Amino acid sequence: MPNPHPSSRTRRFALPTTVPLALTLSLALLNAGMASSPAAARANPSPTTTTSPATDSPSTTTTERAAKSSSGGTLKWESCPNDKIGMDCADLQVPADWHKPDGRKITLKVGRLKATGTSEGSVLVAYGGPGGPGIALTQSSPDWWAKLRQRMDVVTWDTRGYGIDQFQGLSTGLPCVWTRVPIADAPKDDADFGRLSDTNRGYAEACRLKDPELFANMSSADHARDMDAIRKALGDDKLNYYGASYAGFYGQDYARLFPGRVRTMVLDGTWSHSAVNWQRELEEMAKSNEQFMRRFFTWCAANDCKDVPALWHALIARADRTPVPTTTANVAYKARDLQTFAVALARQGAPAWPKLATAIRKASKGDASDFVPARGARYPDQATGVTECTDWPRVANRKEMTSIFTRLRKIAPNTGIAGSNASATLNCVGWPVPVTNPPAALPKNLPPMLGAGAWGESDAVERVLTQVPGSATIHHDGPGHTLYGFNPCARDHINRYFTDRTLPSRNTKC
Predict the structure, then answer these.
(1) Quick check: 253 and 484 in contact, CB under 8 A?
(2) pTM of the model as a whole
(3) Does position 35 have pLDDT exceeding 90, yes or no?
(4) What angle separates helix 335-346 from helix 278-301, to the nearest 10 degrees?
């Protein structure tokens, strides 16, 4: 949910550098012309977990009945709007509320790049965000899919609720204009907690009141149900799915809702929405952020900045008491601000580490100006998260918050709660829609799945896939976000898995 690169709204699809809650697309897609901004949405009641892939859950029956009645199992393809790459589009009517299959319908815009050879099926692709416009993003990067298209159609869609004005999405959107908001400070007392709750509710209500039904049905589970409607409308017996970034959560939810419909599934550059113990998963997130800083400190030990770790410890201790000023008017940074920006730089690897060392040295002398983003928001910020606030547990009161924060700060003394879901979900306190799609374990008897990711991400997705026997994870020992578009080694393994269901070795390095 926090902006991974908290410097600009237009970097919605930039390299994620803070938290997994708002995983986004790679900066390369933005440079290809994609720009967007924050977003919103809610969820359905918790997914029904089934244990046998041979039997559809009750939710499957509802989804297929609604999809069949609205689409007849046939998509009418025509050239996509402003198409320049030979991409076809079709409209699919689905329920606004999947629990009311005969109620109001909304439109999903589905896009397809047909196989260049004889098609052996289709792969459904989603880029995350949430709200990444699948059609526009696929049109901006068709070369990604060239080899896979020799044997398979590549299909994508624009997710519900994320419309044309802010997201370039062509499906039914919420009639809202979202702005980014600073990540909330931890409330100091119960009165502060109450004020935070009212502030968050105010942001949400401005949008919710314009379309309460759609707002209430935009969780990752709703996107997963839309995915099954697309599968049905394509005439595919089972689903092949590539989910990048936040769209990896759609995939995990699909696997829970429709285990018998999964043929192949790739989770690339994502995190766990399948934790059995959510508090333990928060601890793993904190450890991952701490590891980014420790890599930086290790580099400093051999690169003339041995003084920086001690300076950093003193700096964040001091900033907890007195914010560190900058030369930008009215901008001074508390410890959590500095930690968030530092994690952002540390995640980028060696090219960014000299800048981080300089910024710490300067801030330790009383000037944190080098942490101020060059453009956009001056404080770590995030989208107003309609999807996110229904997908992730949030604290119920200040006592619970304090207990969690204290534990995470002990685990990650250099980074604390920065860049974690524990911090991000403070902006969900008081949300008018409850957490309706919380993390939950995957069902048994899923087919082997494939994960991929760079630092931190591959470890997180591996924690998901340990629940699915026979699965494998591709690890990249370096910075970055998602592998398919930028790592030929990973792309070849993923393509082979989709076409032949051949997995690489369990811990493949790329």
Answers:
(1) no
(2) 0.88
(3) no
(4) 70
